[in-house]
TrEMBL record, chain A:
SMART domains assigned: AAA (SM00382)
Keyword Transmembrane helix: no
NCBIfam families hit by this protein: ABC_phnC
GO CC term (a single one): membrane
Keyword set, alphabetical order: ATP-binding, Cell membrane, Membrane, Nucleotide-binding, Phosphonate transport, Translocase, Transport
A GO MF label: ATP hydrolysis activity
Protein name: ABC superfamily ATP binding cassette transporter, ABC protein
Boundaries of every ABC transporter domain copy: 2-246
Pfam families linked: ABC_tran
Automatic annotation (TrEMBL), chain B:
ABC transmembrane type-1 domain sequence ranges: 91-275
SUPFAM superfamilies in the record: MetI-like
One GO CC term on file: plasma membrane
Protein name, entry field: Phosphonate ABC transporter, permease protein PhnE
Protein family per UniProt: Belongs to the binding-protein-dependent transport system permease family.
Membrane topology reported for the UniProt record: Multi-pass membrane protein
Record keyword Transmembrane present: yes
Cited Pfam families: BPD_transp_1
Lineage: Bacteria, Bacillati, Bacillota, Bacilli, Lactobacillales
Localization in the cell: Cell membrane
A biological process term (GO) from this entry: transmembrane transport
Length: 256, 286
């Protein structure tokens, strides 16, 4: 479904943020990426839909290399990749429904995008998605008036509106309280199990990774240091993933 | 125990001796320039002021005449040569002049701002448009009207084009500044869903821009109304400004001038109330 091979990225040419990252994501599974701050988790996620251009490697999404697409093809591919952000990234002055409807604009014409021309079927679907995430009553509320947990659920509904094969989540629960965290994670888990969507999540909370993930990838200093089923994520493995890289090791990494 | 010769110590601060530096207030070249300029201007004023006073000037009479005129204007306003209808018509003309110029200006400025916001436009274009607009803004509206009156003759045409010209330059800047505040994340999010540029502008930029667009446009409307009154007098563009000019300089009818001043004042107060309401309803949304 999604296979990343030998991905490498350097933001400034000298310091490498990713060195030779390879992993794959299976359909209908929750894959969680964990690792210390600055390890390169965000970089990996944003490379997948090419929000940042990586330097080297392959990103095969349904056997098509995302890095080889031209602008139009890339837009087409992106319209079927959902993305969920730590800060929700909703258009706050608009209503929840309008935000969800943005999800289907990627496949529509410029005119439809400019003048918000949606079919009735699309509006119905957006409403149903809001109901699915438990926000049916908030459809016509301005998003700036919603709570963090509600905003994130609008974000999920918006991603679902794209009919995604995969949803990429960059720390989706980092700004949420425990209750909203459970709601959001349960939703994402449900999408993988029941709708067969691949869910790739960057997380900082190991316990949540253990509860929800099928597959865990550990990243440290721009390299994959763990790649296995969740059951194999022992405490020693976690310590290893979060291990501080000493300077001698770091210089070895850069030379190699 | 560290041997005494190997011990380190923090250097003690020596008491500062006399320093032979120029005092701060003379070192600042800007301040010196300002001081010299002010001194020269003061000198010139003192020299020329006495020569400006005409021989037949009598201070006491001038002051009583002035207060008399003020009294007529503000305490005994009534109409004699003009009718209420034509006066209201004149006010309407000035309002329409302000409305038309603000409308055309805000539409043109919106597109120019889109082409010169850092969020969407390349730096060269941003700098190009913004510096061109700065030059236009630097010349006052009345002057633009007079410049255009060379082409169109004194009158309404020159007024419309001149005021619009300055409005476009003003609004382009404030709109572009407001557009710059759009967060890059909002743009990126929509890009990540495969949206194209025009859709991103309409779905993300415009919703965020709307409140500041409305309040800036309204502020410009107030400015344009004041300009329309002044230009009615200066460039014969009609409206209440022209009537004001006629009754004061042509008929010397200060009773009538008083009525007009009150009328303009009332309208300004109405505008102020509307803009206050507009602003508070916008802030309530945030
Ligand atoms: N825009 C950028 N320009 C330069 N360097 C960057 C940029 N973004 C990230 N980096 C660097 O790349 C490395 C990986 O960053 P990344 O954001 O992917 O880490 P992360 O694992 O997501 O960290 P966190 O858990 O704190 O979000 C870091 O060393 C960071 O300093
Ligand atoms: Mg990150």
């Amino acid at each position: 479904m999604l296979t990343v091979k030998h991905l490498a990225k350097s933001y400034n040419g000298t310091k490498k943020s990713l060195t030779d990252v390879s992993f794959s994501v299976s359909p209908g599974e929750v894959t969680v990426i964990i690792g210390p701050s600055g390890a390169g988790k965000t970089t990996i996620l944003r490379s997948i839909n090419q929000l940042i251009r990586d330097d080297d490697g392959e990103i095969l999404f349904d056997d098509v290399d995302m890095r080889q697409l031209n602008r139009r093809q890339l837009r087409d591919a992106r319209s079927h990749i959902g993305m969920i952000f730590q800060n929700y990234n909703l258009i706050e002055p608009l209503t929840a429904l309008e935000n969800v409807l943005h999800g289907c604009l990627g496949t529509k014409s410029n005119l439809a995008g400019m003048f918000s021309l949606y079919r009735n079927s699309e509006k119905t679907e957006a409403l149903q998605l809001l109901q699915k995430v438990g926000l049916g009553d908030f459809a016509y509320q301005q998003c700036r008036n919603l709570s963090g947990g509600q905003k994130q659920r609008v974000g999920i509904a918006r991603a679902l509106m794209q009919h995604p094969k995969i949803i990429l989540c960059d720390e989706p629960i980092a700004s949420l309280d425990p209750k909203s965290t459970t709601v959001v994670m349960d939703l994402l888990r449900d999408l993988a199990t029941n709708d067969g969507i691949s869910v790739l999540i960057n997380l900082h909370q190991v316990d949540i990774a253990r509860t929800y993930a099928d597959h865990v990838i550990g990243i440290n200093n721009g390299q994959v240091v763990f790649d296995d089923r969740t059951a194999a994520l022992t405490d020693t493995a976690v310590t290893d993933i979060y291990r501080k890289t000493t300077s001698s090791e770091r210089s070895l990494v850069y030379e190699g | 125990m560290i041997k005494p010769e190997n011990q380190v110590s923090l250097p003690t601060q020596l008491p500062a001796g006399p320093r032979f530096t120029i005092p701060l207030r003379f070192r600042d070249r800007r301040r010196v320039t300002m001081l010299i300029t002010l001194l020269i201007l003061g000198y010139v004023t003192l020299i020329t002021l006495p020569t400006m006073i005409p021989d037949h000037f009598k201070l006491v009479e001038a002051i009583t005449g002035f207060t008399e005129n003020i009294k007529i204007m503000f305490l005994q306003p009534h109409l004699s040569n003009t009718s209420w209808l034509s006066l209201l018509g004149g006010l309407g003309q000035s309002i329409l002049l302000a409305f038309l110029t603000t409308l055309i200006g805000s539409v043109l400025a919106f597109f120019l701002a889109l082409a010169s916001t850092r969020r969407f436009a390349p730096t060269a274009l941003v700098l190009g448009i913004q510096s061109f607009m700065a030059v236009i803004r630097a010349i006052p509206t009345v002057l633009w009207v007079l410049i255009y009156s060379v082409v169109f003759g004194l009158g309404a045409n020159a007024a419309v084009i001149g005021i619009t010209f300055h409005s476009v330059a003003y609004l382009t800047k404030v709109y572009a500044d407001s557009m710059d505040e759009l967060s890059p994340e909002a743009i990126e999010t929509l890009q990540a869903m495969g949206l194209k540029r025009p859709a991103i502008i309409c779905q993300a930029l415009i919703p965020y821009l709307k409140p500041s667009y409305l309040s800036w446009t309204f502020i410009r409307f107030e400015i344009n109304f004041a300009d329309a009154v002044a230009i009615g007098a200066a460039a014969g563009a009609g409206g209440i400004g022209y009537q004001l000019f006629m009754s004061s300089s042509f008929y010397f009818d200060f009773h009538e001038v008083g009525v007009m001043v009150y009328l303009i004042l009332a309208f300004a107060v109405v505008l102020e109330i509307i803009s206050y309401r507009l602003r508070s309803s916008n802030t309530a949304q945030h």
